[in-house]
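hey so i finally got around to running the thing on that chain from the lab meeting. sorry it took forever, my laptop kept dying and i had to restart like 3 times. anyway pasting the input first so we r on the same page abt which one it is
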Amino acid sequence: MTEEYLYHYKKTRKQRSALFIRMSMVCLGYIAALYLVEYHTDIVIPENTHDISVITLSLFAIILLLIGFWHIGNPATYEAYISRREFSVSYPEAKSLSFRVKIEGLRGFVWVDLGVFW
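ok and heres what got predicted. didnt touch it at all, straight out
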């Protein structure tokens, strides 16, 4: 982070894909836990609940994996920063959502330098 930025956030889609892949692994973990509970305990899970849980968690895992792999295959970078002069957000492949605003142009905004955090 340069000295000019008060806040700077930058993340690639490849970095973001790890979240979706981890969430799909959690779904598969829930399915495994369901089978382990049924196998090692005397708890009886109703068949409808079992089937619905396995099917929906499997579908969610597949969808999340596909989203994660799409993020890996389509690289782009999201970036946002705040400086003393401007606030900027840059979305990949969505120029209509990206913007840059001068801080002095914001109505009702008063800059207060606290000096404690920076």
